[in-house]
Design a protein that fits this description.
alpha/beta, Rossmann fold, two-stranded antiparallel ribbon, 4 helices, 5 strands, 40% helix, binds flavin mononucleotide
């Protein structure tokens, strides 16, 4: 419990949080899920008031970076993508005001694809960082 409390306090102390993980069986690795399960604490990062949920992390920003072996841009695979979508949902539930995500797809589709997708993803991350930090404010 003490370790979970420390992780929660660490998250609460941050104005910007970045998490990065691979897709495992269409979702996030169990260790990453365990981290979310540790820090999503009622009364700390979210609350339930007057019959509805309220995130307590207002004004904060979160960026979720995911790499996957396959492609999830089109149906039917789009409906199987629960790695990036779940990560973003968790932060939205905790009330983060600005939640972004980048999915580097097709990491197992050859080196050429890997390099072009990683270059594109890096550019997306740089654009987000510029937007968040470009004017000197986080
Ligand atoms: C246990 C395991 C499960 C995986 N499940 C999926 C999956 O469901 N869909 C997918 O597109 N890639 C899957 N992958 C591939 C990883 O997402 C991919 O290898 C990773 O994003 C690329 O990072 P790496 O170069 O460190 O392996 C899986 C990999 C492992 C090891």
């Amino acid at each position: 419990m003490a370790k979970m409390d420390r992780m929660t306090e660490q998250l609460i102390s941050a104005d910007v949080v970045v998490v990065a993980y691979p897709m495992y069986n269409f979702s996030m690795p169990a260790s990453v899920k365990a981290w979310f399960d540790s820090v999503m604490l009622k009364g700390k990062t979210w609350d339930a008031k007057d019959g509805s949920y309220a995130g307590l992390m207002k004004g904060k920003k979160a960026l979720v970076l995911v790499a996957s072996g396959g492609f999830y841009g089109k149906e039917p695979m789009a409906s199987w993508e629960h790695a990036l979508s779940l990560g973003k949902t968790e932060f939205q539930f905790m009330g983060y005001s600005d939640v972004r995500g980048v999915l580097a797809e097709g990491m197992n589709a050859g080196d050429e694809n890997k390099m072009s997708v990683l270059t594109k993803s890096l550019r997306q991350v740089q654009d987000i960082a510029r937007e968040w930090y470009g004017n000197g404010k986080a």
